[in-house]
Design a protein that fits this description.
Elements (H helix, E strand, L loop, with lengths): L1 E6 L5 H16 L4 E6 L11 H9 L16 H4 L2 E4 L2 H8 L5 H4 L2 E3 L20 H24 L2
Parallel strand pairs: 1-2, 1-3, 3-4
Helix pairs in contact: 1-6, 2-6
The structure holds 4-nitrophenyl phosphate (4NP).
Length: about 150
């Protein structure tokens, strides 16, 4: 099973999502291939934002090895599930899909938590450290739900 996390820059939300998925899957003994990408090319080759790295490290997860890359149309064939963080990411990714089969692999991350009020993972880039901690908690809940679904078909 191959899972791709997507945001705009691939330096804040999607590397945090990738790091969380990697860590939580390992804790459960679930074997997955994980990756992340940005719809933009603004931060290709860069390590995650230092505030994102710090928020993850505060919760015991190291994402310093991750590097930014841009999402491309080949990713539809390479991944079983593609999770996007907000509706803008969704529109940008779906614009590159070739048909309904490819489109169907793409979901908003918060679709995993239908009961939550927030339907998007907000971009923390222009805010303070609090935003990164909030993103962590939001992602952690959604990713646990996704892994529940994978493990138990729930
Ligand atoms: P991300 O955050 O999409 O969560 O990685 C952003 C990072 C960089 C920029 C925007 C959002 N930027 O405009 O450079």
């Amino acid at each position: 099973m191959k899972i791709l996390m997507v945001c705009l820059g691939n330096i804040c939300r999607s590397p945090m999502a990738e790091g969380l998925l990697r860590a939580r899957a390992a804790e459960r003994g679930v074997s997955l291939i994980t990756d992340s990408a940005g719809t933009s090319n603004y931060h290709v080759g860069e390590a995650p934002d230092l505030r994102a790295q710090a928020a993850m490290r505060r919760r015991g997860i190291d994402i310093s090895d991750l590097r930014g890359r841009q999402f491309n149309a080949k990713d539809f064939a390479a991944f079983d599930h593609i999770f996007v963080m907000d509706r803008s990411n969704l529109a940008n990714v779906l614009a590159l899909a070739e048909g309904p089969h490819q489109q169907a692999r793409v979901r908003l991350m918060m679709d995993m938590l239908p009961e939550a009020e927030l339907r998007e993972v907000p971009d923390p880039y222009f805010g303070g450290d609090d935003g990164f901690d909030a993103v962590f908690d939001q992602l952690d809940s959604a990713i646990h739900r996704f892994l529940d679904e994978l493990e138990h078909g729930r």
